[in-house]
Amino acid sequence: MPFQYDQLLLQVLIVLIPIILYLALSNDKGDETQENIIWGVVCAITLALSITFSIIIDGIRIDSRMVPWYLAFIYGGMNVGTFVSICFFIVRFLYGGIGMIPSFFAMMISLFFIYWAQKKFHTLTLKKKIYLSFIYVSISSAMLPIIAVLFGSEITIFKTIFNSFLFIVENGIMAWFAIYLIESHREKILLRKEIQRNEKMQVVGELAASVAHEIRNPMTSVKGFMQLLTEANNLTTDQKEYVQISLEELNRANDIISDYLSLGKNQAIKKLCVLDIGKEANKSIAGLSSYATLHNVEVSIGINGQAVILGNSSQVQQMFVNLIKNAIEAAEEKVDISIHCTQKEVEIFISNDGEGLTVEQIEKLGLPFYSTKEQGTGLGLMVTIQLIREMGGKWNVKSDKTMGTVFHITIPRNEGKLESSIKNRD
Length: 426
Fold this sequence. Notes:
By secondary structure, the protein is of the alpha+beta class. The chain contains 13 helices and 9 strands. Helix 1 packs antiparallel against helix 2, helix 5 runs antiparallel to helix 6 and helix 7 runs parallel beside helix 12. The longest helix has 73 residues.
């Protein structure tokens, strides 16, 4: 029986067209649950169509079902992958045939490895993601004819080896192409969000530069007269309390203006020196000790190795103060700071045990005027993120409503410049 090349091309279209349409029509405004449901439906329909139009050789259905099945687990998670797997078992059972039992066994064996792949996948680079997907889908696709032979099906392996090999390679290439499309789409979404963040920060910076100084000057005068009022003898206790509250609010307004001015300035690091991140973190913790005590929060720190970078002390301390202060305000009982040093970078983890954040809240962190606190402005975190970027670092937040929030920062060590600076200092 000649190989049906038109069916092979049809399998390619069945798998790739729904994915391309999904990426073209999807947006990043929907919530994660809704996106996962839509993705699960797309993968389930793609898998069903792939089986429906499969090539039957010696009673064995050869198709591209493993590609949408794999993508369902990788990009939808275990719940979406389980849903698509159930759809597969139902559809395959309805079609029956001698290849049904081998296909069930092949899918069950693949399930043992998908959990590991799903957890590891998102920590890899794009190149490694593509290689992993190509290898995994190819091996999973090869299981069906192999298990069919082991089950004693009347199949001549020499007759079908070429046809099976073509489909195995095709599935691997489709997984390769699909992963590249999806990752490129995600990268563009992140880039667009980054551009939007930068545009908003630029607007806030320009506003700060033109307005903040003009506001601070009259505030300084008001604060001076209010302080004189506190020394007056003819004020009642309530009036003195009102004056004190007014001074506190003026101080808070002054802090907000300082944050605006920080955004308006060029924060480029001018004076670089060799810094021990652990020592800078301990200085910041010491400065916030009374603030932590006031909130009944215990702050602990663990340092693994000497975390040395080339940076600016005041900016690094400002970064730590803003993040630790936010963690203290969000914590129930404790804040943990963990610093790990590798040859190329320093990793900083600042975690709290308070109520976690939703996905929508995490996505809005760092935007102008967005804060999870009732009286917050979000400007402190904006300044912090700006400082992290200027050090060439990266940041991300992981949160759970029951486990709290972890703020993860990665700062490159710039090993060559660091060694050169140490030699010059010596």
